[in-house]
């Protein structure tokens, strides 16, 4: 089975903010974020994808997305990506 579920991290350099989400199509999802269609991110446009992980199932991706939103997950991303946030 082909991996088609992604967890992604967006970075807004202008606002020094990151956002974690999941999708089946990272390119399209980034376009949605940068067009202002996503309420939680539209105030911090422009965004760029700085990290992705892929999974076979939506459930696996959801678990990883939730992890990235915990203190341990934020620490992992900070160390992995060297972000100051």
Description:
With 85 residues, this protein is α+β, with helices and mostly antiparallel strands. The chain is built from three helices and three strands; from the N terminus they run ββαβαα. It has one domain (5-81): GIY-YIG endonuclease (3-Layer(aba) Sandwich). The termini are far apart. Helix content is 36%, strand content 27%. The relative contact order is 0.25. The mean pLDDT is 93.
Draw up the topology in text.
Elements lengths: L4 E8 L4 E7 L2 H9 L13 E8 L2 H11 L2 H11 L4
Antiparallel strand pairs: 1-2, 1-3
Descriptors:
globular, GIY-YIG endonuclease, alpha+beta, three-stranded antiparallel β-sheet, 85 residues
Kindly state the number of beta strands.
3
Strand proportion? 25-35%
Structural class: alpha+beta
Give me the side-by-side strand order of the main sheet: 2-1-3
User: At the third CATH level, what is the topology name?
Assistant: GIY-YIG endonuclease
Which stretches are low in confidence, meaning pLDDT under 50 for 5 or more residues running?
Answer: none
Q: How many helical elements?
A: 3
Average pLDDT, all residues: 93
**Topology as a string of helices (H) and strands (E):** EEHEHH
CATH architecture: 3-Layer(aba) Sandwich
